[in-house]
Please model this.
Amino acid sequence: MDFTLSKEHEMARALFKEFAEKEVKPLAQEVDETEVFPRETVEKMAKLGFLGIPVPKEYGGQGCDPLTYAMCVEELSKVCGTTGVIVSAHTSLCCDPIMTYGTEEQKQKYLIPLAKGEKLGAFGLTEPGAGTDAQGQQTKAVLDGDEWVLNGSKCFITNGKEADVYVIFAITGTVEKRGRMTKEISAFIVEKGTPGFTFGTKEKKMGIRGSSTYELIFTDCRIPKDNLLGQQGKGFGIAMHTLDGGRIGIASQALGLAEGALETTIQYVKERKQFGRTIGAFQNTQFQLADMATKVQAAQLLVYKAAMAKATQKVYSVEAAMAKLYAAEVAMEVTTKAVQLHGGYGYIREYDVERMMRDAKITEIYEGTSEVQRMVISGSLLK
Amino acid sequence: MNLEEYKGVYVFAQQVDNEISSIAFELLGKAKDLAKDLNTEVTAVLVGSGIKGLADQLAEYGADKVIVVDDPELKDYRTEPYAHALSSVINKYKPEIMLVGATAIGRDLGPRVSARVATGLTADCTVLEIGDFPLQAVPGQEQLHNQLLMTRPAFGGNTIATIACPYNRPQMATVRAGVMQKIDPIKGAKAVVEEFNPGFTPDNKYVEILDIVKAVTETVDIMDAKILVSGGRGVGSPENFKILEELAEVLGGTVSCSRAVVDSGWKPKDLQVGQTGKTVRPNVYFAIGISGAIQHVAGMEESDIIVAINKDADAPIFDVADYGVVGDLNKIVPKLTAALKAEIAAAQ
Amino acid sequence: MKIVVCIKQVPDTKGGVKFNPDGTLDRGAMLTIMNPDDKAGLEAALRLKDQYDAEVTVVTMGLPKAEEVLREAMAMGADKGVLVTDRVLGGADTWATSTTLAGAIRNLDYDLIITGRQAIDGDTAQVGPQISEHLNIPVISYAQDIKIEGDSVIVERQYEDRYHVVKAKMPCLITALSELNEPRYMTPGGIFDAYKQEITVWGRADLKDVDDANLGLKGSPTKIAKASDKVRKGAGEKVTLDPDESVSYIVDKLKVKHVI
Model:
């Protein structure tokens, strides 16, 4: 068992770190304050291939492994949680399902521009009445000649309105399963600008405030028949499998936030003086930092393990769930402690840890709450 | 190479637009000291077109002899004809020491010439002296006397090294501008003037100058300023730099700034002092509202006198300041300007 | 068109120079980077590659670890990497370094050689012009802009108070200023590709037309008599006074030092 990263991975990390420090960090506070989507940063990342890291080269991507992708989200999130989730939602939730389930034509048409960053992607599963209970879908798609007609709405959609390509889930009928009638869910690719596809209100959030979170509304929205993603009726499986990958992205985001808060705090306690000495000289500070660093390291190992599992295993639901559960809870704990160690300064917006703590909370909620992750993990233990 | 053949301290007397650069006089000042220690003469090498008339000036600043290489090919600086001129002088006259200014010309000419005459070159020296090599006698190694010992900073000024060129001649150095002292010119002094033309035949190495564009800069290069009034984030706003500008004006100085100020878009990059900006060594450096991150300090700690004003008594700038004042710059700086104005007026 | 770019791996001083408790430089604690001027030179070459489909070969001389900087250059888009490494080449001054690099470059086809103006560890700016002398080709130092016109390069050559627009026939050597451009980032895929490529490793025996007497420590005309990591200037005085007293304090000090 080897815990050292390859030279390639080390260099990739150095690249992501340099980009994050130079291009992302200077904007992080402003992005949070103004709640403006960092379009320029996304364009810069597109140019460098950051929006197609795990996509094969023949489809316009970088041909790297999921670990490289995870490190990218991690380094970006160290300085800006918003930028981290933009990349994660685009890559894990839009590129990945098209790469896995798309036809060759769909890949040519959608995956290539997505991976090149010419287009941005999003994923629409959640509905007002269907969060953790994804089966509670209401959005419907009906085949009418050569077109699917979509009606319904999706909420809390990351990259909403900013994205060009959306992977959308809708009910396409009912099927009998073990003697009960259940909803048949299918996945579709919907382009922005399709008549009948509009955006509702923009959500005002506690954290990741620069990420664009919108309600998607479908009113007799007609899309080509060929935009069915995967087989009809297999949508639920596609959604669940996609979320397994997405959780690795969010786990990386959480990890980055925790690392960012830890690094900022280490710096701070070396400079801040109280009672005539730096607060880092107090044993309370030292022990807090020791616990924080240990947990961050443990989270990193889980996240990297899950990323590597995605590269080598067909099923990695449990690894992804554990990584996300733990990294998200560590992010919340570490950012909260970071604020505490900053004292009053930690509570004001001029200091990064304040934002990091707000950003961290969402990692315990989206792409499966911590409770859902526990269900996934325990389900595998007791099956 | 018979080292004994090489005699005299030579200076490349840089001229631009037929006007001798200040560095040439500075080098002559130093060359005079070195020549005295070696009991030899100072020779200036004047290269250009229509420049013979400048020889007297070099004499006034300490040249005993001036070798003039005057040719139309030498009108504006180009590496090849100038390198040919200087290396031909070296080959013919065999100087013991050859000093060149560490200017945009000298740092191009020096290496090309040193490679052509196959000797060592030490870049960007700040101290030159005559001494022994090795500095202390080492058993089994002959200690050579009367060597040129060239001291230079490296690593962005974080290290210093003293270098000798014991077995090759001439001993060549480029010397940083503004470091060596010129002598007070001796009016009417004359030097032996000797003309020498090694012949210039253009070949592929003669580049063509298509255009010369002189930069119109009103601002003084902060690297040349004797007094710098430098502001940091603590100044608070771009408008508030006015109080620093007023202080600089009274002292005949220039305003510079820290990286934070440039990053905030308050001042242009060419005024930035520090590792990622410029390294300065003025006579007086005022650090106002600058915390003194190591990146900044590395760019200004060579200053002769550092005065720091900062409201944070723990600011690291106080670790390098000669005179540190803990207090509010908004209150102190305008009063300081007024007080200095009064002092200067009283002295006149 | 074929371009050779000389690059150097140097300790990073940007993230803060690290000092030992005694004030000397802690080299071990500093990371290494591609020398900034060299990176600008590489970027200039890569732009010519984008424009004219040039082939870019990066050459470095150093310890085997310097391979990293070649991989980085290749991840940015350089086509080939050459590492010149040999124990007998160690301890070289600029003369011996330029002799070595010229010996390596003689094995390569080139229309243009680009080097950085100077390295941030040595700050000499000598190696580029010296290589050009050994190869008997023109040099244009301090380039702030580079264009190609037929078989010539047109370069804006910077001086203190002006710039010259200079035209030179290729082959030619140019030294690049870091102001020349904003170097591109690597790409993630480029990094993995770079590590899959072969790097040419040359030792003493591979250098063309060079004399042993001009290599390494022994072949260096300049000798270090004394080297020291400079101990930083200590703290002077620090006073906390009211504004008027502060002003008098500063004025007095400036008088004592004959500033006014």
